[in-house]
């Protein structure tokens, strides 16, 4: 009973102490808020109401009244950069870095903001210097991401590989897809400089980084074909099926031309028909159709397209079937078929694009590197209609 009575007496005391502490905190906040200039609160109000121009004017006035307010300098620098006034943003963040009373965390934040200012202004070399100073700090990952972006813009692929490998070690995230494509970019440069052996070595490095990198085998096959080694080129391109059969559409014409050089067009056509049966593709169908038309005539080509459309019905396939049907139609029926084909074509133009898996960007041509989001191999050679019909 005594123990319980003691606790009952203690409760009012704890409550009183909590009330006193709360009053002290409130007085402290009110005192601090009164020390801030009114223009500071006006600036915050403008920001809330999405009026950045007026917010900047208010914050500039506040800085004149209270020049020691570090947070205001950060806010102004960010607002200047957002408006595209990178010169003013750079000056603001440089002034911050020159202050002796700046704490270590604030100094790192100012250096990061300055690097972003330089990046926005297109001063990539100065942005690189800023981000390099942030390596091995608390902002290391952010700095590495920015450096990787800079090196890709400058096409400094060797440096990009080094940074990507460093990120892979420190974060545990796999960067094998990006690294393999950086090697392919280096190989492309070597091909342009007429150094095929150096290019070949780099493409093998790409496959070592990512054995499923289709681009490396496509380029290796191109180099072998350019050297007249058509058998080797065919074998290299055939590996694409094991890597990712979606990309067979990219090598279909190459395979056909290599077989043509070896006077084995029929064998090449048979190979592509086998691919079409196992891995349906509108682009693959187009190549098979054109080859059938050349070798076996319009009737056989129409039969192949019709069978494929029955097996995998698509508007793009239907348009191809109508094109083949026009070839074998009688003169009196041809105008009607041309009319229907034209109507179908108006619809297929919207579904005949390639689409990035990551950001959804669409274009009429294929890219290894998405122009919108910068993703590598996020842009498969597959038409949007095929994506929509996929289970």
Short key terms for the protein model shown above:
391 residues, elongated, two-stranded antiparallel ribbon, 21 helices
> How many helices in DSSP terms?
21
Q: How far is the first residue's CA from the last residue's CA?
A: 72 Å
Largest sheet: 2 strands, antiparallel
* Strand order in space, largest sheet: 1-2
Low-confidence stretches: 6-11, 19-36, 62-67
Structural class: mainly alpha
Which radius of gyration do the C-alpha atoms yield? 32 Å
- Into which percentage range does the β-strand content fall? under 5%
Which geometry do the CA atoms define? elongated
Describe this entry's structure for a reader.
- The protein is an all-alpha fold.
- It has a domain at 353-391.
- Helix content is 74%, strand content 1%.
- It contains 21 helices and 2 strands.
- The chain has helices at 2-35, 38-48, 52-65, 70-82, 86-97, 104-121, 124-132, 140-153, 157-171, 176-192, 196-209, 214-226, 230-238, 240-243, 248-261, 265-278, 282-295, 298-311, 315-328, 334-351, 384-389; strands at residues 354-355, 362-363.
- It has a two-stranded antiparallel sheet.
- A hairpin with a 6-residue loop joins strand 1 and strand 2 (362-363).
- Helix 15 packs parallel to helix 17 (282-295), helix 16 packs antiparallel against helix 17 and helix 19 (315-328) runs antiparallel to helix 20 (334-351).
- It is elongated and about 90 Å long.
- 33% of the residues are buried.
């Amino acid at each position: 009973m005594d123990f319980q009575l003691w606790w009952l007496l203690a409760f009012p005391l704890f409550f009183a102490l909590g009330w006193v502490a709360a009053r002290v905190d409130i007085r402290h906040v009110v005192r601090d808020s009164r020390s801030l200039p009114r223009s500071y609160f006006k600036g915050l109000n403008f920001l809330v109401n999405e009026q950045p121009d007026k917010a900047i004017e208010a914050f500039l006035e506040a800085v004149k009244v209270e020049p020691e307010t570090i947070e205001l300098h950060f806010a102004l620098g960010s607002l200047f950069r957002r408006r595209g006034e990178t010169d003013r943003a750079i000056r603001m963040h440089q002034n911050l870095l020159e202050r002796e009373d700046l704490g270590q965390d604030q100094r790192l934040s100012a250096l990061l903001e300055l690097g972003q200012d330089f990046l926005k202004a297109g001063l990539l070399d100065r942005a690189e210097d800023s981000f390099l100073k942030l390596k091995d700090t608390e902002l290391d990952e952010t700095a590495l991401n920015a450096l990787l972006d800079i090196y890709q813009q400058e096409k400094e692929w060797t440096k990009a590989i080094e940074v990507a490998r460093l990120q892979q070690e420190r974060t545990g995230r796999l960067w094998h897809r990006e690294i393999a494509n950086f090697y392919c970019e280096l190989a492309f440069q070597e091909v342009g400089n007429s150094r095929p052996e150096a290019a070949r070595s780099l493409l093998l490095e790409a496959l070592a980084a990512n054995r499923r990198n289709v681009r490396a085998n496509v380029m290796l096959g191109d180099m072998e074909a350019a050297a007249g080694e058509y058998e080797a080129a065919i074998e290299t391109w055939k590996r694409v099926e094991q890597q990712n059969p979606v990309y067979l559409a990219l090598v279909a014409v190459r395979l056909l031309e290599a077989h043509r050089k070896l006077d084995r067009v029929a064998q090449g056509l048979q190979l592509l028909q086998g691919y079409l049966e196992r891995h349906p593709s509108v682009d693959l169908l187009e190549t098979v159709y054109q080859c059938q038309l050349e070798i076996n005539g319009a009737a056989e080509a129409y039969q192949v397209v019709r069978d494929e459309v029955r097996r995998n019905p698509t508007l793009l396939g239907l348009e191809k079937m109508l094109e083949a049907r026009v070839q074998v139609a009688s003169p009196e029926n041809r105008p009607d078929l041309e009319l229907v084909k034209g109507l179908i074509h108006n619809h297929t133009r919207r579904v005949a694009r390639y689409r990035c898996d990551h950001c959804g960007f669409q274009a009429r041509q294929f890219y290894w590197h998405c122009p919108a989001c910068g993703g590598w191999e996020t842009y498969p050679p597959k038409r949007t209609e095929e994506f929509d019909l996929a289970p």
